Amino acid sequence: MSTERIIDTDAFVQIGQPANAVVAEVAKKINKPYEGAAAMSAPAVIDNQNVTSTTPIRGSMTPMDMLNHAVETGANIETLTKLMDLQDRWEKNQARKAFEAAMSAAKAEIPEIKKSRKVDFTSGKGRTNYQYEDLAGIMSAVAPVLSKHGLHVRYRTAAEPNMPISVTCIISHSMGHSEENTLTAGRDDSGNKNSIQAIGSTVTYLQRYTLKAVLGLAAAADDDGSTADQTTDEAKPITEAQASVIRELIEQGELETPTFCDHWKVEAVTDIPMDKFNEVVGSLRRRVAWLKQQKSESAA
């Protein structure tokens, strides 16, 4: 007389495993029938080594349920190790799905980011007058919404002597899944900054842009209008920190700087107009992603 066990295959489908093969392999090594069958839905009946469908009933069985049952029935170490691996992957998948749901909900609630800071000075090149959103303003807008959905932001910074500064923005969910975005730039030596101020300026700048990138945020358009003597984003070139970001992406994209400049019709990277910065960065990131995909396919 064969012994039947009812095991839900959905938990294994969710983590990308060939459900029947995995369940059958594990079930062969469990010596006692599972007594909690009445509490599961969409199960499969395992008769010896053959897996067949049966009528759905309520409940569901996770890899942890199977692991607990395996321990109770004295399964061997090999079986327990496989189930622990399945449980770990299942938890990571659940955490990823919870993260995606929380991010989607948060983005729908994050208000428009206002450009609350103003730059206005005159140099030999004329008057520069524009507005931007500062890090504190962005955080005050997004932090309450992120917290509401179990999300939080932190940063990791690397600033070695004589090396570009790297800032990584990490957004994490309470269930453990996190994603990050990293940007690198040189020290902001513009103006009369001392060395500490130059580092601080770049770090703050990169924190602002990595946060916006990881959240997919866009600032509101300037609401004070333009006057005849203002330098608009179209005419104003990018900052040195922004140029450093582009140079890093040019290197990652395995491009030659002259080729890049010819494509964007500029003499140097620093001549890129401010209003083209996001377009240029987006184009370079797509190339970097394409290169990674090509290398991955070639290695397969």
Automatic annotation (TrEMBL):
InterPro entries: ERF_bacteria_virus. Pfam families: ERF. It comes from the Bacteria. This is ERF family protein.
